[in-house]
Design goal:
mainly alpha; 14 helices
C-alpha cells in the first residue's frame, strides 16, 4: 500500500472520531454537574499528556532535540491550546451542528495560510472558494440571531472559527518539525506544554468539579474525549501530516458535520433546518472549489513542460 494511502486512512479516522466528539463534548458541558469548558480543557490536556508519556516510555521512542523542543512550545500553543480551548469554549455557547459547520472552513483557511507562508499561488478558484465558504459561515452566524440564545450562539461560532484558524496555521507551519520527530515524542511534549500553559486559568474551574458525584456515563464520555478524541486523533494527525499536503489533509474536515449532525439529531441535541443546510452547502462548495485549484508545484511543472515544448 502506498504511503499516501495510510495518510488518507489516518485523517479519515481522525475526522470520524472528531465528528462523534462534538456532541459528546457538548453533552458533558451541558450536564447538571457543571463541568466548565476550562475544566474540561485541563482534564483533556492532562489526561492525554499522561497517556502520551506512558506510551512513549513503554515503546522507548527517540528523544527530541533541544531546538525542536523549543519549537514545540509554539506548535503546542497553536495546535493544542488555542485550537482546542477555543473550540470547547465556543461549543459551550453554540450547537454541535453549528460548530461542525464552522470547522469545515479549515481547508479554506489552510489554503490562505499556505499562500502566505508556503508561497502557494492565489488563483481565481481559490478566491472564489474562499468567498463561497465565508458566505456560508456568515450565513450561519447571522441566522443565529433568530434563536433565543442568539448572543451566545454567534460568539460561540466565532470562538470555533478562531480554533480553525489556529489549526490551519499549525498544519501549515510545522510540517518539517513533525517529519523529524516520532508522533509520540512530538505529542508527549506538546500536551505537556499545553497542560502547563492552561493550568493557571483552569485551576479554579477544575477545583469546582464534583468528581465524587460524577456518574459512570460522564466518566465514560470523559474517557472518550481523552483517549479517542485526543490521544488517538493527535497520534494519527502526524501520520497524515508527513504523507499529505496541508490542503489535502484539511479537506477531510467535511466529514465532521455529517457525522456530528447525525449523532446530534439522534441524541435530540439539535435540529437541522434549511438555513443550516444552505450554510453547510456553501461551505462544502467553497471547500471543493478551493481544493480544485492548482498547487505551486503543479503550476511550475506545467510551466516547465510548456517551455520544453516551445524549444522543440
Amino acid at each position: 500500500m502506498k504511503q499516501s494511502y495510510w495518510g488518507h486512512i489516518a485523517i479519515i479516522a481522525v475526522n470520524l472520531i472528531f465528528g462523534f466528539n462534538t456532541p459528546i463534548t457538548k453533552s458533558v458541558l451541558g450536564s447538571e454537574f457543571m463541568i466548565s469548558p476550562l475544566a474540561l480543557t485541563f482534564l483533556r490536556f492532562a489526561g492525554a499528556a499522561s497517556v502520551f508519556w506512558i506510551a512513549a516510555a513503554l515503546l522507548k521512542v527517540p528523544k527530541a532535540g533541544k531546538k525542536d523542543i523549543l519549537i514545540m512550545i509554539v506548535a503546542s500553543f497553536l495546535g493544542i491550546v488555542l485550537n482546542q480551548m477555543s473550540f470547547v469554549v465556543g461549543l459551550s455557547s453554540t450547537s454541535p451542528v453549528d460548530a461542525s459547520i464552522v470547522v469545515t472552513l479549515t481547508p479554506v483557511l489552510t489554503m490562505i495560510a499556505a499562500a502566505l507562508f508556503l508561497k502557494e499561488p492565489i488563483t481565481a478558484l481559490k478566491v472564489l472558494g474562499v468567498f463561497i465558504g465565508c458566505a456560508g459561515a456568515v450565513l450561519l452566524i447571522l441566522t443565529s440571531a433568530n434563536n433565543s440564545s442568539a448572543e451566545r450562539s454567534w460568539v460561540g461560532n466565532l470562538f470555533c472559527l478562531t480554533s480553525c484558524i489556529a489549526y490551519a496555521l499549525y498544519l501549515t507551519l510545522f510540517k518539517k518539525l513533525i517529519s523529524r520527530n516520532h508522533p509520540l515524542t512530538l505529542m508527549k511534549w506538546m500536551f505537556l506544554f499545553g497542560t502547563i500553559m492552561v493550568l493557571p486559568i483552569c485551576y479554579k474551574p477544575l477545583s469546582e468539579v464534583p468528581f465524587a458525584n460524577l456518574p459512570a456515563e460522564i466518566w465514560l464520555k470523559l474517557a472518550y474525549i481523552v483517549l479517542a478524541a485526543t490521544f488517538v486523533t493527535y497520534l494519527l494527525i502526524p501520520v497524515g501530516q508527513v504523507r499529505l499536503r496541508p490542503t489535502t489533509l484539511s479537506m477531510y474536515n467535511y466529514l465532521q458535520p455529517i457525522v456530528t449532525t447525525l449523532v446530534a439529531v439522534f441524541m435530540g441535541m439539535d435540529t437541522f433546518g434549511w438555513h443550516k443546510a444552505l450554510a453547510a452547502g456553501l461551505v462544502f462548495l467553497g471547500v471543493y472549489v478551493v481544493t480544485q485549484s492548482k498547487s505551486r508545484q503543479q503550476i511550475e511543472n506545467e510551466k516547465r513542460l510548456k517551455e520544453k515544448s516551445n524549444q522543440l
